[in-house]
Write a structure and sequence with these properties.
Elements lengths: L3 H33 L2 H25 L8 H19 L14 H8 L2 H17 L5 H4 L3 H63 L4 H14 L9 H13 L17 H8 L1 H8 L7 H8 L21 H15 L11 H10 L7 H11 L8 H5 L1
Helix pairs in contact: 1-2, 2-3, 3-4, 3-5, 4-5, 4-7, 5-7, 7-9, 8-9, 8-13, 11-12, 12-13, 13-14, 14-15
Length: 384
């Protein structure tokens, strides 16, 4: 799982702070070396200066998003690991218990990394942490029994640090999910509010009522119940029903009253409602699947639909569900150029295009949803 903007912000802040700390250490080390001129102050200055260059370089790459996207999380974990073990090996302050610095790595990893990256680099960290024992003079100079107890104690702390990092990771993950859920819910309320606001305008332009929305919604929900594996939710159906009605808002008024055959130009305007519906929910990542489904609901299985001439499995189930529902509702609603068809007549017309325009499984359950006895229909009509 990714933490996107939140993770990016926290990671950048931590890198910036550590860069400032290394810069401060370099300045202090330079001042001390300038006054004392001994080997220790020189070592201190060179160590912090190298760390400062490393930190600022990595911060620049991270801030400017110059790291490859797919590897950026692993690169962050790698450079962080390199930093901590560099400090432990170099030990510019000659601190006897410098190994304690290594315990902070899993905590930083829990803040910066994704779950996948955390698992990989915590495993690498534990291996390196235990290999560090063989070069740590504070252990190697001790007696065997004391050395064993020190290793055991440090191992306990390393695993405890990893557990703490996992707790931080889980907390941030849950917090991020909650924030995303709140944002998504807010987006949905906003979209529904906009569509409901536009509904009266479409009613006046089209001389139709919003009852068509309810009919569309009820039929689509009835059909969706036959396909629970598709996991199409009620709110998605509610949104599509509103979207389908409101997407006609950019049609010229006269087209709703025209009784003659549409011209090529007018037919192209009709097709634009796919794009209009998609534009109404454009920019909301959690609605992207609905946008795609609506864009393709006039595609046909045989590839003669629009706007992209998709065919077969290229067309999603959701798009096909919208298509069958739209066709039935359109045929059973009166228009300026024709009277409404009965539900049997509308079903017959849809049945004729089974396997060509519409999925067979959806057309088959349409009869059940409409409570039509297919045995009562004339066979010649069904196949003609």
């Amino acid at each position: 799982m990714k933490y996107l903007a939140d993770q990016k912000s926290v990671g950048g802040q931590i890198l910036f702070i550590t860069s400032l700390l290394m810069t401060s250490g370099s300045l202090i080390g330079g001042i001390c070396w300038g006054f004392l001129k001994n080997e220790f102050t020189l070592s201190l200055f060179l160590g912090f200066s190298a760390s400062m260059v490393f930190h600022w370089s990595f911060y620049f790459l991270y801030k400017k998003s110059l790291l490859p996207k797919r590897q950026s999380d692993h690169l962050i974990a790698f450079f962080s690991c390199l930093l901590f073990f560099f400090i432990a090996f170099y030990n510019p302050l000659l601190f006897s218990d410098i190994w304690i610095v290594l315990l902070y790595y899993p905590l930083i990893l829990g803040i910066l990394a994704s779950e996948e990256v955390f698992k990989v680099w915590v495993s690498i960290y534990l291996v390196l942490f235990h290999l560090y024992y063989f070069i740590d003079p504070s252990i190697m100079n001790e007696e065997t029994q004391a050395s064993f107890l020190m290793i055991l104690g440090r191992s306990f702390f390393s695993f405890f640090s990893c557990a703490a990092g996992l707790i931080i990771l889980t907390y941030l993950h849950n917090m991020n999910n909650n924030n995303e859920a709140m944002v998504n819910e807010k987006n949905k309320r906003y979209i529904f509010q906009v569509l409901h606001t536009l509904t009266p305008i479409v009613e006046r332009k089209s001389h139709t009522t919003r009852n068509e929305i309810e009919e569309f919604r009820c039929l689509m929900k009835s059909l969706a119940k036959y396909f629970p594996q598709e996991k199409i939710t009620d709110w998605e159906i509610d949104l599509v029903s509103l979207l389908h009605y409101v997407s006609r808002i950019n049609w010229p008024d006269y087209m709703f009253e025209k009784k003659d055959t549409l011209t090529r130009f007018e037919y192209e305007i009709i097709q634009e409602h796919c794009f209009m519906g998609a534009e109404l929910i454009n920019g909301f990542s959690d609605l992207e699947h609905i946008k795609t489904a609506f864009m393709h609901h006039h595609e046909r299985l045989d590839g003669t639909g629009y706007p992209e001439q998709l065919s077969g499995s290229q067309i999603s189930f959701f798009s096909q569900l919208i298509a069958v529902t739209e066709s039935y509702v359109a045929m059973t609603t009166s228009r300026s150029y024709r009277q409404a068809l009965s539900k049997q007549e509308a079903y017959q017309e849809i049945y004729k295009l089974k396997g060509q325009a519409y999925r067979e499984d959806i057309v088959n359950v349409l009869a059940d949803a409409l409570e039509i006895e297919t045995s009562d229909l004339h066979a010649d009509k069904l196949v003609g």
